[in-house]
Amino acid sequence: MSHRFLPYLWTCVFLLLAIVLSVAIGSVPIPPLSQLRLLADWLMRKPLPDSLQIFASIISAIRLPRTALVLLTGAALGGSGAADQGLFRNPLADPYLIGVASGAGLGAVLAMSVNWPYTFWGLMVVPLAAFCAALATVFVVYSLARLGKTVPTTNLILAGVAFGSFASALTSYLMLRSTGDLHRAIAWMLGGASQAGWSPVLAVLPFLVIGLGVLVLSGHSLNLMQYGDDQAQQLGLHVTRARTVILVAASLATAAAVSFSGIIGFIGLIIPHVMRLWFGADYRRLLPLSILGGAGALLLADVLARTLLAPQELPVGIITALAGAPFFLWVLRRTKNQGYW
Amino acid sequence: MLRIEALTVAYGARRALHAVSLEVEAGQVVALIGPNGSGKTTLVRAVSGVLPVLEGRVRTNGDDLLSLPPAQRARHLAVVPQAVSLPPAFSVWETVLMGRTPYLNFLGQVSLKDEEIARLALQKVEALELADRRVGELSGGEQQRVLLARALAQATPILLLDEPTSNLDMHYQISFMETVRALAHQEHLAVLIALHDLNLAARYADRVALLQEGELIACGTPRQVLTAELISSAYHLPVQVVPHPFSDTPLVLPEDRSV
Q1: Residues A99 and A239 in one domain
Q2: Residue numbers of A between 282 and 311 with CB closer than 8 Å to B
Q3: What is the ipTM of this complex?
């Protein structure tokens, strides 16, 4: 029985280490032992010693909200990536395949082309627009791919790719013509948790809990879908309904992640592959593991993004792409030799 | 038993099946034969509910199968597809357990009873020793047996098979068909099996149904249907039918047109 829980144990340890590292590293390093002390004091509601006072305020105001946002983003990308790969039975699928990210990007840049006041709601316009555009993309792509009562996978991918290119082209055009805050748009597109404080974390939480919660419960349906639509239905799965539920849940998670942290490639592609290679193809296990692993991996990438050129900060999307592209090629080579997929 | 009543299926304007009616009694193997494109696979797909049907019904003891939700239907009728491009990473055991889906909750939690049924199913197809292997490592013949076990795990009174022997060598073809026939007779399953090989149909089917261009043109015992006249006209190829040297079933041989 122990081998059933071991993968979770490893992944949780990895995530925990990534969290500690993410809280520890910055312009003021906070050693893990001090973190532990702070946590213990906070849990026992003891007053803090003066020496730790400054650490406590840095952690609660800066490090922890950032860590939380990156963690949630990574979790969303890992989970929706695994779901998309299963849904489309395609090892290349990730949250970007069906055009959700490009749609979100278009929405965000549309919003950025206007100079909004620098207030809370002014800041919220961009992620909200990205979020709405992402959901609209799902709807449009789904309607385009629809064939009578069914939604064939191939149609869905083709419609997604076509709509994604269309949205990307519009985005580029808007950015060229824009008079607004272009620098911010570019930084957002490359992915970076530029929004500080707890409000984005709280805003993103309900979407992620619903989206990822549904995905974690969909493992058995995704297992059945690996046999193709016909067999899945002959085995008793209501394929069209299950696919709609999973698609909306995955897109909800993706859109939430993209809208606050920008476009971060490769996490949704890499993490499910690693988990599948190491721990097997059962989606009931693959989904929670990809969520945990995605959170840990994006935290590590974010730590690198903050430290490589410190004090300047790199967009985390650059790190994930730099590490992800070679990894992706390696996975491609491996897929030829091994039937793990 | 399975009763197909005046089933009509169309792909766009083209009629793929035209008012096909066919009965399969419990404990009986009915072979579905016909040239490529005659509608064998279409019939299997339509009866299993994955193709929209223009007209007609599929009944079993009063239930209208096509109007049932998928999970309900999957308790009446199981399908053995051709074993091609199966997900390779699942183990044989996991694959067979998926046959229990119509009885599981949406999380797919299996009980001891489900495991017992899956084990029995693997035993019936003589593949229990493969349980821990990954499907991708198996030969075509072994994979086909695993799919048969998965269908048996569904514990349905009706079994549909879509050209399960087409990719198998002679040894696996014979042993697979022997297993199917034994299961039908012993467990009183109604078995409808689409077959390419007319001589397999002649040897293992209780009845043979001949499709041509979406219409059922003959149905009866192998002797009644596998005649030189019917087969020659359906397949557009002159054939001769001779008695099988080892059994009293007909043997279909294409004529040598170069002579």
Answers
A1: yes
A2: 282, 284
A3: 0.92
